């Protein structure tokens, strides 16, 4: 296999400016990303101000390219919990070792929210050909299951749009706020492959842990589940996609959790059959 046909990908909900010591957490987030050494990073609950974005700051430190789109989920606090949250957007971000040649924020269905969250649809200039990436975060409220399923269908439609057919696979990465066996994800799993089991990942892996000091224990359906996902489909019929070394990242650094989620990391490779 041509070693150009590979990408190490990482998706991570980085917890916006929630919780205490958000500034201190930035160093742990960046150090974890450095240690993983990914090619592509999807960020959820990422922040942006009028003058800067978290994705932009990380990209400058890493020598990467970046993009950001808002709004996303969860909604911003009605009243800022501390001054550093005031007038700060919450969205999804993208970091890429390769140039980002196109980006488009696509609103997702949202009957129950005043603002529709977006999926960030991007194309990366991978050496082996354009690499389509979709970064998103889906609704989690059980009472809003119609939105949850409609958003999953919308992302599935984006991922299967023929305009994204090509030399490389289509990647969907994000906090999907549902465990792998949830009916919410059925529209996605009908057309995409979950990279975690495809690569032999631990079926008991958890990305939202109940032992985190700020775990949202009230969301019982999501706690102690793998709710952060990398999904893919081949770029063309006959192409073969393989996954290696699926793993979690984001353990505490110097006693401080970088986020309330763990990141999902895997190496995605693809070949073209003649």
Q: Could you please describe the fold and organization of this structure?
A:
It is a single chain. By secondary structure, the protein is of the alpha+beta class. Helices cover 18% and strands 32% of the residues. It contains five helices and twelve strands. It has helices spanning 22-36, 54-62, 145-160, 186-189, 195-198; strands spanning 6-13, 40-48, 65-69, 89-96, 100-107, 118-124, 131-137, 170-175, 193-194, 228-233, 239-249, 263-272. The strands form two sheets. A six-stranded mixed sheet has the order 3-4-2-1-12-11. The protein is globular and about 55 Å long. It starts with 5 loop residues before the first strand and ends with a strand.
Strand content: 25-35%
**What would you call the structural class?**
alpha+beta
Number of helices: 5
- Form type: globular
Radius of gyration over all CA atoms, rounded:
17 Å
Multimerization state: single chain
Extract low-pLDDT stretches. none
Series of secondary-structure elements, N-terminal to C-terminal: EHEHEEEEEHEHEHEEE
Q: Report the strand count.
A: 12
Q: How are the strands of the biggest sheet laid out side by side?
A: 3-4-2-1-12-11
Mean pLDDT: 96
| Biggest sheet record | 6 strands, mixed
Q: Termini separation (Å)?
A: 13 Å
């Amino acid at each position: 296999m041509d070693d150009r046909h590979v990408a190490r990908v990482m998706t991570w909900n980085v917890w916006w400016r929630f919780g205490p010591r958000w500034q201190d957490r930035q160093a742990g987030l960046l150090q974890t990303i450095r240690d993983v050494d990914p090619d592509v990073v999807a960020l959820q609950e990422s922040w942006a101000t009028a003058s800067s974005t978290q994705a932009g700051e990380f990209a400058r430190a890493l020598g990467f390219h970046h993009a950001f789109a808002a709004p996303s989920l969860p909604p911003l606090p009605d009243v800022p919990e501390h001054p550093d949250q005031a007038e700060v957007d919450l969205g999804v971000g993208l970091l890429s070792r390769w140039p980002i040649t196109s980006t488009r924020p696509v609103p997702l269905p949202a009957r129950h929210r005043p603002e529709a969250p977006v999926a960030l649809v991007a194309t990366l200039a991978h050496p082996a050909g354009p690499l389509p990436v979709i970064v998103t975060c889906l609704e989690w409220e059980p009472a809003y299951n119609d939105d949850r399923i409609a958003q999953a269908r919308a992302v599935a439609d984006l991922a299967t749009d023929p305009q994204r057919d090509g030399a490389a696979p289509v990647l969907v990465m994000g906090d999907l706020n549902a465990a792998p066996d949830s009916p919410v994800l059925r529209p996605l799993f009908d057309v995409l492959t979950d990279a975690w089991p495809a690569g032999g990942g631990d079926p008991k892996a958890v990305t939202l842990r109940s032992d985190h000091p700020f775990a949202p224990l009230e969301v019982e359906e999501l706690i102690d589940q793998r709710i952060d996902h990398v999904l893919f489909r081949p770029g063309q019929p006959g192409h073969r996609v393989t996954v290696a070394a699926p793993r979690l990242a984001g353990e505490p650094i110097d006693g401080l959790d970088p986020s309330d989620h763990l990141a999902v990391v895997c190496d995605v490779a693809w070949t073209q059959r003649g």
